[in-house]
C-alpha cells in the first residue's frame, strides 16, 4: 500500500478568532476549493461550527470531471488550535487531514495542514499519485492560499 504525506503552511493576516471562525465552518469549504472540482456540500442541516463526530458529505470531481461522493468525519477538535477530518467514503483508500493554527508574535496566524493519504488500487494508485494526485493536491492548496489571501489580505 502506497502512503504519502503532504505538509503545507501559510501565514494568514487575521486574528486567531477570525481564522478559526472561518476554517471551522463547513459552509466555507466551497470558498477555498477550486471551482473546477464542482465541490458541493450535500449534508442536510450543516452546523455553523465543526465538532467531533460531525459527518459531512460532498459531491466533488477530483479527477477527469467524474463526480463522486466524499464523506468525511471530523474526528478531533481542539478549539482555536486544530481539527482533523478523516474520509469515511470517497476516492482514497485512506485520508487523514490535520488543520492546525497557531498565533504568531506579529499578530498573524500560522496555518499548517498535514494530509496523510493512500490512493486506491495498489501500485496503480502509486503511479496515479506521481502522475495526477500530487499535482491536484498542489493545485488545491495553491488555490486555497490565494482564496485565504483574498479573505484575509496580507499587509504589505
Overview of the molecule:
With 156 residues, this protein is α+β, with helices and mostly antiparallel strands. It has one domain (4-151): Alpha-D-Glucose-1,6-Bisphosphate, Chain A, domain 4 (2-Layer Sandwich), CATH 3.30.530.20. It is 24% helix and 36% strand. The protein is built from two helices and seven strands, in the order βαββββββα. The chain has helices spanning 16-23, 122-151; strands at residues 4-12, 40-41, 55-60, 68-78, 82-89, 94-103, 109-118. A seven-stranded antiparallel sheet has the order 1-7-6-5-4-3-2. The model has no long low-confidence stretch (mean pLDDT 93).
Estimate percent helicity: 10-25%
Widest β-sheet, arrangement of strands? 1-7-6-5-4-3-2
Q: Which superfamily, in CATH terms, is the homologous superfamily?
A: START domain
Q: How many beta-strand segments?
A: 7
The class by helix and strand makeup works out as alpha+beta
Please state roughly what percent of the residues sit in beta strands, choosing from under 5%, 5-15%, 15-25%, 25-35%, 35-45% or over 45%. 35-45%
SSE layout:
Elements: E1 4-12, H1 16-23, E2 40-41, E3 55-60, E4 68-78, E5 82-89, E6 94-103, E7 109-118, H2 122-151
Give a concise summary.
It is built from 2 helices and 7 strands, in the order βαββββββα. It has 156 residues and is α+β, with helices and mostly antiparallel strands. It has one domain: START domain (Alpha-D-Glucose-1,6-Bisphosphate, Chain A, domain 4, 2-Layer Sandwich), CATH 3.30.530.
